[in-house]
Design a protein that fits this description.
Bound molecules: 3-phosphoglyceric acid, magnesium ion
Strand content: 15-25%
Distance between the termini: 16 Å
Helix content: 25-40%
Length: about 400
């Protein structure tokens, strides 16, 4: 997709530049758990400063504070980290200002023109480097390009280029997509879009139980979206690769937890863990794909030339249910394929296993990358194309 990039801007020398980033990073007790979203756009900020921009006004949302100031979502930890990174890059950080959380104002999510006025006041240029938020038609994303000469920063431009490779005919085959995560309803659109493009679509995570139910399997107390069973059944029948196998591959074995067993953040892990086939015993809960499926998924990834992975295979934060996600992560990391990992939980899993540097591209946007693969466009990109450059 053609979008204006930094070199398309009028010379930034002496100008005031508004830069939208996605600094929505995970923070625990005031500590940033993963600063990737702050590190990557430093390249864009540095370029603008090297071009002698007079001032950069950087802005972002953080969390979902719902239109009112909330100290839990203050930008302070991000501001401190940004300052350190700019200093390490050897640039004049005094020319960079980071605004407070955009979502402290209701105008941001409402895309209120008055809030856009406020953001662009005194600015000469706009740079959007917030790929992770490009699927949100919010004021700071879609507003400024109609008012100022605008372009995509390096992070946004690179994300679009990588995803275009997956969508284009140049994607090398076999193309294997691996999708996990909890809600199948969130993923139906992208499955629909991918099923005719990929050779195999491997399904794990909480969403696989609705597919298993569609195949007539018992799912016990596992996550199930009953109103999506018919959609899953239709997708299982769709798309047949030339070798005749199914496009959508669901687990044939599972790792399950006994009734009443506890798992998840902040809980003492309890209960009995068992390996079963594709049927979950009554009251038990499927929380990971089983070892046979993990090996089969790893083999499919190993044979692929292009891999897209979004969403964990199980509750990997609990070591009892991490094996499936680890197998996928390790297969993606050691594969010779062009490997793209789509944001959020799968990126966190890769990082937890120490494999983040072993794939070709870790997207900074989970929701945004899925929506781009599904729609082929995003509100933030459309705004830049329509914009004033
Ligand atoms: C994300 O983390 O997914 C992006 O920053 C977008 O945040 P949102 O889902 O709260 O709009
Ligand atoms: Mg999100």
């Amino acid at each position: 997709m053609n979008i204006p990039v930094l070199e398309d801007l009028p010379s930034p020398g002496g100008k005031h530049v508004l830069v939208r980033c996605d600094f929505n990073v995970p923070i625990t007790d005031g500590q940033i758990d993963d600063d990737l979203r702050i590190r990557l756009p430093i390249e864009t900020l540095t370029w603008l400063l090297d071009q002698d921009a007079a001032r950069l006004t950087v802005c972002s949302h953080l969390g979902r504070p719902k239109g009112t100031p909330d100290p839990r979502y203050s930008m302070d930890p991000v501001r401190a980290r940004l300052g350190e990174l700019l200093e390490a890059a050897g640039v004049d950080a005094s020319r960079v200002e980071l605004l407070e959380n955009l979502r402290f104002s209701p105008g941001e999510e409402d895309n209120d023109p008055a809030f856009v006025d406020h953001l662009v006041a005194g600015q000469d240029l706009y740079v959007d480097d917030a790929f992770g938020a490009a699927h949100r038609a919010h004021a700071s994303i879609v507003g400024p390009p109609a008012r100022l000469p605008s372009a995509a920063g390096r992070v946004l431009a690179r994300e679009v280029e990588v995803l275009d490779t997956l969508l284009g005919r140049a994607a090398r085959r076999p193309f294997v997509a691996v999708l996990g995560g909890s809600k199948v309803s969130d993923k139906l659109g992208v499955i629909e879009a991918l099923v005719d493009r990929v050779d195999r679509l491997l399904v794990g995570g909480g969403m696989c139980y609705t597919f298993l139910a569609a195949q007539g399997h018992a799912v016990g107390a596992s996550l199930l979206e009953e109103d999506r069973i018919d959609d899953c059944r239709r997708l299982l029948d769709a798309g047949r690769p030339p070798d005749g196998g199914p496009t959508i591959v669901v687990p044939t074995d599972l790792t399950v937890l006994s009734p009443g067993g506890a798992f998840g953040p902040g809980k003492e892990p309890t209960g009995e863990v068992r390996q079963v086939g594709a049927d979950v015993p009554g009251g038990w809960m499927g929380l990971d794909i089983g070892p046979g499926s993990a090996a089969a998924f790893a083999d499919a990834i190993g044979e692929a030339a292009t891999v897209f992975w979004n969403g964990p295979m199980g509750v990997f934060e609990d070591p009892r249910f991490a094996a499936g996600t680890r197998a996928v992560a390790e297969a993606a990391a050691s594969s010779r394929a062009f490997t793209v990992v789509g944001g959020g939980d799968s990126a966190a899993a890769l990082a937890a296993f120490g494999l983040a540097d072993a794939v070709d591209h870790v997207s900074t946007g989970g929701g945004a990358s899925l929506e781009y693969l599904e729609q082929g466009d995003l509100p933030g990109l459309a705004a830049l194309r329509r914009g004033a450059v």
